[in-house]
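Example (one chain per record):
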Amino acid sequence: MTRAISLHDVTKSYTRGIRVVDRLSLDITPGEFLVLLGPSGCGKSTVLRMIAGLEEIDEGQLLLDGEYANHLPPSGRDIAMVFQNFALYPNMTSRDNISFPLRIEAPGEDPSPRVDTTARMLGIEDLLDRFPAQLSGGERQRVAMGRAIARHPSAFLMDEPLSNLDAKLRGHLRAEIGRLTRELGVTTVYVTHDQAEAMSLGDRVAVMRGGVLQQVDTPRTVYALPRNVFVAAFIGTPRINLLRGMVRAPLDGAMTISLGKQFLRLPEPLSLDHQLLRVQQGREIIVGLRSEAVRIARPSSARPGEVAITGLVEHLEFQGHEVIVHFNTGSSPAVVPELEAARPGARAVRRGRREGTVIDRLRERAGALRGGPVAVLDEPVGGDRGPTSTEVRLPGDLVVRTTPDMELRQGMQVPLLVDLAHLYVFDQHGERICPAPTHLPDLGE
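Predicted structure:
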């Protein structure tokens, strides 16, 4: 049996009333593999612990199969948890570690058949008589997973179970976790800060920042249609190029997006998304271009929807199967302050219902959705700006992928083609305005 998990406006606060989880609502369907993704300290592990019953919920409701469960002790939730540090008993063999919860739940039953079945499933039959100190990190994690699987729980909660392992072993166990959860069909909530794990494992990915849920959708949609600039920058390797720009939309000429010393001329007739950019005329915006949206080629080979710019090679990263090229295009990178920070704008707990106009409540709601400011554009486009103490300047302003047979060298001026079909535009607050939202917000929510 698997179960549905629902969180409705769940809030958790610690010292001084600072909210580590802020009014989070999330519905997880039976058998779904949901990944909670975000930087360290964003509240994702706290959400997991509240589901498990290891943390009390200050506000809001937890529903398990539609029934109120805030008051249930961990033992009454039929949920198994896999921890980051394995949490094995050092004085017990692997067999005893796996069978321990079974002996607690059913003291009169022989746990051996379930232990042996689980061991075969995980390929650890030859490890059952060893103690944790005699096992490698990957073997310990398999035993910890076996302890959870043997219980036949209605849900799995996994708190960064692979973060202490080396890269090769992480990839192997990641594939095993995906295979096992699909075979078992058990609802799984998986916490990680590794986007590769999130994108490869999850049926859906829930991105968190500062205790606030930013976006929840399929991995493909989160990557292709990020709700805001934080999600766009957090998902994807190499990180999306974010450039400061300004829309120019003269009545008697073509619409362009100025990028400092160069500009992107939008092809005519304008697409619907590009037509909507007219309202941004004269305003500063953030232009997002993923590395696959730009290719090295001459203007004469441009395809429909591609526009030409040039870039000066500043740095090359040889990756074997590809080369990551850092270009200087004369543009100004957009600043996403404290992208990896846990709490960009912590909010204290409200002691009562806030009175105010509808506009006030909408502003508060919009602030909660963003989890604090995610973009700052308070200086002229193209202006000189020295690096701050918290900012590390990376080479160039545009990162592009190319094949290893491309002969490039530092200081070379190179023609580039930008595919405007893969153009992202965000407003000054970091909210995506192009591609346009798929639906308008419901003001009655």
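Caption: The longest helix spans residues 167-184.
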